[in-house]
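User: quick one, sequence for these tokens?
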């Protein structure tokens, strides 16, 4: 399994730093080794030179047979050389010339022992040349420290520069990420701009745009199919409704036929409402926005809906209460439809002798409209699905035998979306709150008006 790279920027920067440190380290080691070899060669040459001079002086003493002369010459030779010393046998005793002997052994000395021809019982003398290499050791230590510091500082500089260069090189990728984050289902025609991308990323951008294009075509085809089906079904349903209504007004049918026609008419109206609702939801999902008008009192718009439902609330033994007010830019008819759906549901499932409270509140970014009733609770796993199309919960709250198509709250969510807001549902004990928000920063699109008059079944008389 390949190792997952968490950050390309961090990975590239770290790799550049490590490679730079290793490269500079190899160079510094090579410089150190070459310098050490050169210093060792210089010391060897120096020892050879001093050995040759000592050998020449001993040879001259052998001819002159004057030990005092040899001592004088050796003192003169090592007088100005404090880094070297000579221990040689003269007249049977070992004598030292040059650098004084330090107390204790020293590791910073290089000793070379050799023998020379001379007058004596054995015809040879033993000599030892001592060279102080402390300066060479200090030079090597200083050189090693300097090279290490140079490699470390160079790596840090490369790290800073590489971080800047990598960040600059990946800036188009960040721009691409920003473009992708702005894509939304509401804007199916948007594409990624690959003009500023590198050649390596351009094919990825083109492939992604191709995928978006195919998705847009599939989405348009699907929505077109849904719209065509809805239109094709609405025409025959309208005809059937008209014919059934005409048959009901005629007197040439018996009571059984009348009951059948009434049942058919009811179902036909229900099917027509479903088709109209689906057409509206299809428009909303395509991102169609509305052109609303500014109202100073949202509560005044809601009050018209509550007055319409007073009779139904009284029959259910429920009291309608309106709290709060706000200013907002809305499409009046659509807002009344959303409130109508929420209030109708709240009355249907509220306990008798309870209150259905409609609350309007506002803040900097949005206006919230929520409807609360006391009744059978909704399980938590149902709350997130209430606004889906044709969704019906299976608990007791929705087991009252009343036939509903399951599009009411989906329409509420669509209307909230068209106002730049969102819907929400909460349940605390037996208190159930369902509502939506309206964005106060929403900018309407001129000319993008949604006509939904056919679907405003209950609040049509309120506008």
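Assistant:
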């Amino acid at each position: 399994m390949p190792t997952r790279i968490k950050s390309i920027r961090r990975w590239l920067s770290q790799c550049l730093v490590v490679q730079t440190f290793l490269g500079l380290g190899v160079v510094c080691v090579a410089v150190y080794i070459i310098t050490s070899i050169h210093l060792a060669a210089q010391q060897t040459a120096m020892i050879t030179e001093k050995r040759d001079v000592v050998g020449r002086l001993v040879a001259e003493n052998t001819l002159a047979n004057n030990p005092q002369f040899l001592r004088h010459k050796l003192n003169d030779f090592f007088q100005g050389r404090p880094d070297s010393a000579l221990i040689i046998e003269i007249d049977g005793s070992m004598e030292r010339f040059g650098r004084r002997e330090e107390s204790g052994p020293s590791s910073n000395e290089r000793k070379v022992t050799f023998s020379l021809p001379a007058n004596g019982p054995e015809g040879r003398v033993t000599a030892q040349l001592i060279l102080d290499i402390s300066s060479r050791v200090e030079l090597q230590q200083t050189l090693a420290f300097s090279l290490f510091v140079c490699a470390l500082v160079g790596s840090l500089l490369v790290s800073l520069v590489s971080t800047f260069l990598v960040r600059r090189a990946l800036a188009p990728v960040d721009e691409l990420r920003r473009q992708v984050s702005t894509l939304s289902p509401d804007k199916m025609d948007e594409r990624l701009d690959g003009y500023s991308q590198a050649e390596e990323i351009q094919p990825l951008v083109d492939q992604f745009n191709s995928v978006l294009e195919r998705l847009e075509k599939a989405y348009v085809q699907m929505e077109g199919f849904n719209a065509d089906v809805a239109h094709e079904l609405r025409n025959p349903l309208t005809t059937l409704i008209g014919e059934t209504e005409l048959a009901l007004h005629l007197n040439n049918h018996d009571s059984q036929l009348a009951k059948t026609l009434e049942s058919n008419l009811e179902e036909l109206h229900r099917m027509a409402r479903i088709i109209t609702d689906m057409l509206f939801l299809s428009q909303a999902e395509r991102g169609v926005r509305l052109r609303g008008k500014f109202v100073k009192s949202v509560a005044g718009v809601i009050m018209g809906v509550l007055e319409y439902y007073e009779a139904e609330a009284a029959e259910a033994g429920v009291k309608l209460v309106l709290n709060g007010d706000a200013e907002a830019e809305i499409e009046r008819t659509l807002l009344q439809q959303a409130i109508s759906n929420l209030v109708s549901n709240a009355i249907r499932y509220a306990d008798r002798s309870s209150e259905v409270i409609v609350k309007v509140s506002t803040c900097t970014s949005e206006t919230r409209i929520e409807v609360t009733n006391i009744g059978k609770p909704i399980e938590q796993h149902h709350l997130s699905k209430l606004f889906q199309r044709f969704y019906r919960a299976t608990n007791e709250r929705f087991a009252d035998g009343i036939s509903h198509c399951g599009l009411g709250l989906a329409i509420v969510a669509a209307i909230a979306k068209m106002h730049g807001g969102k819907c929400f549902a909460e349940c605390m004990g037996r208190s159930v709150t369902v509502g939506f928000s309206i964005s106060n920063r929403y900018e309407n699109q001129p000319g993008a008006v949604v006509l939904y008059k056919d679907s405003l079944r209950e609040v049509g008389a309120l506008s």
